[in-house]
Amino acid sequence: MVYKIRESNADRTILVPSKTMGIIIFIIKVIGLIFLLPGLLVLFSEEPLDNIVFILSGIGLTFFVGGSMASSYASKLPGKMVFNNTLGKLQIFDKIGKFTRREESAFLSYNEIANFGIRKIRFNNSVSYGVYLEKKDAAIWDLFQSNSENKAREFLQQVENNIDFRPKKDKNQTDVNQGAVIGFTTDSENYKIEKTDTKATIIWRRKLELFNTLSMLVFLFGFTLVFYSAKDEMEQVGRIIAFIFLAVVNSLVLWGIFVSLFSRFHLTIEPNEITYTKFFLKKPVKTAKIESSILHSVLFHFNVSSGHSAIFLLTAEQNQMLSKINKGEAGLGDVFAAFKAHKGSLKIYGTSLSFSEKVRLEKTIQSLITEITGRQNL
């Protein structure tokens, strides 16, 4: 998701999603309907059905449902972000369907922001330019991306010129941006927190997103329908390859849905160690640990070009290397170290969470680590 500036003045700068993503999703859905509707019309006619009908219907289902799933993904990203100079914070507003909430869903205090920058994004043989916000913990939030370096620099200049990082005072002469928001301090819709004086555990499971689950099944059905209907046009070897390919794809997706329904996740914080455990059918199947003494930072990173976002618990070395990767500063000599840093870091993806929920979860983890271990400024 790429953002554009809707309004920018001395009081605030408002970023809203660019229409590019919406246009692309709309085109994908239209392509789906173009293929799907003729196939459906033939199904209700008295003419004998041909394989081409099922092929067209399968292609249509795949494109239309794929577009719908992309819309669902986009709905988890902020519907609006406001750099509010009066309040001294970046306000994040979630979406509700096609609408944006009026109340802020989360915020980032100005004193958590280090700077803004531009990085090159290389994909295949093309190069684009991304404008990012860098937090003081070295986390990167992508805001804008363009194939034109000039457009990226214009966006960056406009943001920098209109954001006032000077401390603000309220009527009691207290810094209004003194600290960061605290997230889920008690049980929430998605999280349960169990806490004693020496131990805290955050427990959650993926939300059952009925629409996405059904969409994935329909997507698989359409995908399978195309290959199955075209089997008569294939040679024997092609049929075998297609069958194996479909069996593998369907098995992986169905297994993924099954696992997500019966998995839960624990992040356990103790004075000397932090442990992340994935449970499947009540049995631990994946565990990652980091010693409290070497924990350097807890940060939420968001990459708009890849759609990748996660909360990282990092050592100082991992933090430094991932920062180089995120800024596009890692060279060929850093490949092994970069792979080691990413592979060895403790990551929480929270795929069913919205952007603001991940921001709040990051704050919750930081708050509980400080409370249990005494570590601060993570």
H/I helix tally: 8
End-to-end separation in angstroms reads: 28 Å
Strand order of the largest sheet: 1-2-3-4-7
How would a textbook summarize the main sheet? 5 strands, antiparallel
Measured by DSSP, the beta-strand proportion falls in 25-35%
Kindly provide the radius of gyration, computed on alpha-carbon positions and rounded to a whole number of angstroms. 24 Å
Strand/helix succession: EEHHEEEEEEEEHEEHHEEEEEHHEH
Structural class: alpha+beta
Give the fraction of residues assigned to helices. 25-40%
Query: What overall form do the CA principal axes indicate?
Result: globular
Return the average pLDDT rounded to an integer. 78
User: Which spans of ≥5 residues are poorly predicted at pLDDT below 50?
Assistant: 170-186
3D structure, described in words:
Helices cover 39% and strands 29% of the residues. The chain has helices spanning 19-43, 51-74, 149-162, 210-229, 236-261, 316-326, 335-344, 355-373, and strands spanning 3-8, 12-17, 80-84, 89-93, 95-96, 99-100, 106-109, 113-123, 126-135, 140-146, 191-195, 200-204, 263-269, 273-280, 283-291, 297-303, 308-314, 346-348. The chain has a 5-stranded antiparallel beta sheet with strand order 1-2-3-4-7. Strands 11-12-13-14-15 form a 5-stranded antiparallel beta sheet. Strands 8-9-10 form a 3-stranded antiparallel beta sheet, with helices on one face. Strand 3 and strand 4 form a beta hairpin. Helix 2 packs antiparallel against helix 4. The radius of gyration is 24 Å and the shape is globular.
